[in-house]
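Hello again,

I reread your note about wanting to compare the complex against the isolated chains. To keep things tidy I'm splitting this into two emails, and this first one only covers the full assembly. Below are the input lines as submitted, including protein chains and any nucleic acid or small-molecule components. They are followed by the predicted structure of everything together. The single-chain runs will come separately.
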Amino acid sequence: AQTVTQSQPEMSVQEAETVTLSCTYDTSESDYYLFWYKQPPSRQMILVIRQEAYKQQNATENRFSVNFQKAAKSFSLKISDSQLGDAAMYFCAYRSDGGATNKLIFGTGTLLAVQP
Amino acid sequence: ETGVTQTPRHLVMGMTNKKSLKCEQHLGHNAMYWYKQSAKKPLELMFVYNFKEQTENNSVPSRFSPECPNSSHLFLHLHTLQPEDSALYLCASSQEGGGPSTDTQYFGPGTRLTVL
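Full-complex prediction:
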């Protein structure tokens, strides 16, 4: 069975600085998707970024980028020029590509605080 | 974010009550999901519906009863709940089987449920 591990329960960053959130996963599959979701205090879970495992190029979305290391099964999220609005719980998630299930497997989350 | 809506946002119920949670997606998706989010635990997938058919029941107790009358609406009927069922219940939807942004799940704001 697949698992997702986020080893940093809490992180803190100064406004305008860069922070990296860690995520590792375990799978025997070769094709899958990886996601980072953000859940601010208002509770709405928002997609931050998505990566297809077959793509070697790291996904980027404005200030958000990932470092996807398939062999190491690592999928870290880098937030550049951190803003107060980036403060939230961040979840890493895994999902198989195709197959019989749509199931998303989540990590336990990292709570990011942004200091002014 | 109005792609996936959930009502009510907050619900307090006694253990003998019967209530229902409602989810509606306005994204034209063909799959819908119920998740349970408890403090300090990863999100737990409860049910998956593809094309209105239930395709996954993640060993959920029978006091939770889902209903999917069409691909835009999903309900979670609750009866004789226990205090440990208190949690945030999240609904999500996705487009399965091809097309832009396929397989990515979009979440509603959640219903905060308290069982007394």
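For quick reference: Chain A touches chain B at residues 4, 33, 35, 37, 42-47, 50, 91, 95, 97, 100-109 (CB under 8 Å).

B.
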